[in-house]
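#struct-help
A.M.: can someone run this one for me? Single chain, 222 residues.
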Amino acid sequence: MSKEFYILGNISSFIVVVPLLLSIYKFRSLSKVQVKLSYLLILVFVVEIISNILWRKKINNLPLYHFFTVIHFLLIINIYRKVLSQTYSKLFFIVLGIGFTIFAIINTIFLQGLMTFNSNATTLMGAIIIFLALSYFYALLKEVKYSALETNPMFWINSGFLIYFSSSLILFFMNNTLFKDSTEASFIVWGLHAIINIVLAIFYTVAIWVKPKKEVSENSGF
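D.P.: on it. Structure tokens below:
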């Protein structure tokens, strides 16, 4: 791995500390959706630390991501559960969470073991999050009242999710099909993935930074 990719990878891994520290600093003034995002940031930060420690000790860190994927997914759909409460029922999100968890367990036991990358689960997760992100934007378009999107934390969170998961699905597809036998091309793909991970952290930071005018602006009835 070149020095440039190593540096980019480290920045990608630990840039999450920026929105995390900001959320700690502003914690008492955070809205409900910003608090939920803070929990997500804590999870990502802890996993990145453990993953990097295992990697430096030359221990396979892939088992960690089998558990991370499930918890990450549940935290994300918990963010969407409130803002899409008028579009999808509470039961819909419960079934979604349970169904994905069962799929991830089956995938780990029978298809992609703990020592391999759980691409099936991450691909399904990406597809579901993209669907929820598009659903949120559609719900915004249906709103009859004007809302200031630039001060709506959920708008920034949703935009970050849509960009990240859409790009990740494309990059993983390219890596697993077009470039599966090319180490150099794989490095480029993972480098691009690191860049979109940095972009996601920027959207997280903005989402934590903005101050919604009213709590109802982000938990509005869609």
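A.M.: thanks! The helical segments are 3-14, 17-25, 32-56, 62-83, 90-111, 119-142, 153-178, 183-209.
D.P.: also worth noting: The first helix runs from residue 3 to 14.
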